[in-house]
Amino acid sequence: MVEWSAEERAAIQEVFNKLDYDDVGPKALCRALIVYPWTQRYFGGFGNLYNAEAILSNPMVAAHGIVVLHGLDRAMKNMDDIKNTYTELSELHSEKLHVDPDNFKLLADCLTVVIAGKMGYAFTPDMQAAWQKFLAVVVSALSRQYH
Questions:
Q1: Cα 25 to Cα 62: distance, rounded to the nearest angstrom
Q2: Residue 105 counted as domain residue
Q3: Rounded to whole angstroms, how far apart are CA atoms 35 and 24?
Q4: Which of 18, 52, 111, 134 has CA 20 to 30 A from 128's CA?
Q5: 1: in domain
Q6: Inside any domain, residue 80
Q7: Average pLDDT over all residues of the chain
């Protein structure tokens, strides 16, 4: 079990309080699909992903980016039991979707970049450290079924 300090919990909550899910989620997923084009293979049913413009204007990509943030919201609300909170998602991604677990980290990194861009100097080093720890726990929980 991961130990969270009061400061870490507050920092993570502050990030979530400032998130515009409809903006940040789509931007993070678009960034992942553009920067790491091999991740597109898991989104074959999303239609045209042939170039950055197509990805950025794809409503299915945008909608899934929002879904991803709501999934993270679940983790934030269950910080003391993220592993069990994500059991079904881990099984879905490993057994049905066959997603390479390294892609979770890539998306987490893209999400951090987008958040840092949105928050600017308000995304302090301490806040980033707490956020990175949170995402590492989420990535581990999502990758659990693969081990």
A1: 7
A2: yes
A3: 16
A4: 52
A5: no
A6: yes
A7: 92
Confidence band (pLDDT; 50, 70, 90) for 147? low
Q: How high is the pLDDT of residue 29?
A: 97
* Residue 90: domain span: 6-146
Given a contact cutoff of 8 angstroms between Cβ atoms, the answer to whether 95 and 60 are in contact is no
Query: Given this model, what pLDDT does residue 136 score?
Result: 96
Q: What is the pLDDT of residues 57-84, one digit of tens each?
A: 999 999 999 999 999 999 999 999 999 8
Structure-block tokens of residue 94: 């490993």
Confirm if 68 and 29 have CB atoms less than 8 A apart. Answer: yes
Q: Which two tokens stand for residue 65?
A: 């980016």
d(CA 79, CA 83): 9
CA nearest 52: which of 34, 40, 67? 34
